[in-house]
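Write out structure tokens for RNA polymerase sigma factor.
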Amino acid sequence: MVKSDFDAHLLTLGQQVVQRLQARGIQRADAEDAVATAYEKIIILLPNLSVRNFDGWFYRIALNACLDELRKHRRETLTQQLPEASTLTPQSFATLIAPLPANQQELVARKYYYGFSYEEIGALLAIKPASVKTMLARARKQLRGQWEET
């Protein structure tokens, strides 16, 4: 089977990226999955692809795939730690968010207990929806840190 120079370059590049990801502490299987994701993107985007640094772009695609998988795993872990919504009473919810400052407790309650949208919370509190997202992200990060300690 005769390979083109581009195919040979892609295979070599894939091996190099796997090694670079492993050097960053990523497991080999996860690094190989990320490189496979980068190959898929190349197949889809190749006809219209116009990047100046192809190797750097390839590496970044693979790294982003690893980071996305890590974030997904963290969300799944956090979700597993939360009680079922049907068993959540106002008192148990208050206990869950008690470590947060009062303003963050209010945001978390409006979003996750009452189900308000970012826009609705922003309108109620006279702040931008983007600010609501940022403040909720900080509250979730603080809660995650405290739950991981226990």
